[in-house]
Amino acid sequence: MEFRGNTYYENRQHSTAYIPFSYYESIIPDYFPYVPMHSHMEWELNCFREGGGCFFTDEARLTVQPGDIVLAFPNTLHGIETEGRLVYDTIVFNTDMLGGTSDRCYAEVIAPLCDMAADMVYIDHNHSSDKELLEIAKRIVGCAKGNDARLDLLMKSELMRFLWLADRSGALLSGRKDMGSGEIRNAIDYMNNHFDEMLTIEILAEQVHMSRSWFMLRFKETVGVSAMEYLNRLRVKKVCECLLEGKGVSESAFACGFRNLSNFNRLFKATAGVTPREYLKRAGR
Length: 285
Fold this sequence. Notes:
By secondary structure, this protein is of the alpha+beta class. It has two domains: 2-173, Regulatory protein AraC (Jelly Rolls); 182-282, Homeodomain-like (Arc Repressor Mutant, subunit A, Orthogonal Bundle). It contains ten helices and twelve strands. It has a six-stranded antiparallel β-sheet with strand order 3-10-5-8-11-12. Helix 5 (201-207) crosses helix 6 (212-223) and helix 7 (227-244) crosses helix 8. Residues 1-9 and 176-180 have low confidence and may be disordered.
């Protein structure tokens, strides 16, 4: 993760100048137990296909189910979790997909959204334009899966149409003037960069120049869980990534900050719902 201003970012590169988007099929808990709070410079379109869960930011918690769509704008702190199984398509794309920077469309519509004029677009089955927006979203996903230059042309036009219809139908949520929660975002950034080290509440509070008690209170208010619970969840997710890369259980645990295997096994099962070996079997590895 990298901290810029009041935002913490994923280090993963989702787009390049040549191919300004990435597509992911996401399955919770098969691929990962949940998606911890994070943000990035790109836009993120999530189209939910199976199961149910929660898409959350530091400002809102949205219940999602099949047919729902969430488009998170750049720099929005967000995460996804479920108590069951959740299958969805994710497209992370650069603002370059939405045209140039010199026309009035960009200046008056796109740029304000990048600057947090709103957090996201949320479409559920009660929305007046849900069927049309869902069809547009499906075409966008199809283009991303096709991964072809000519399909990129269609994808760009469909993204613009999606934003136009979402704006027209009042689907933009949570406009605000500033990023807020800067210290907590900084703490999350620090955890994402140092999850493999020995971390305590005192160390995290010191990093953001807050008292221990005030840090614990603000973190829980912002993220919804305690700092230590967030850290353990983050570490378990990192272990899952290591396991899927073919690394051993013990190697993965120690590489991700766990110092005691018994404690690791307990926390892994509590978070992922299965043991590490059962997780690999469930993931088809």
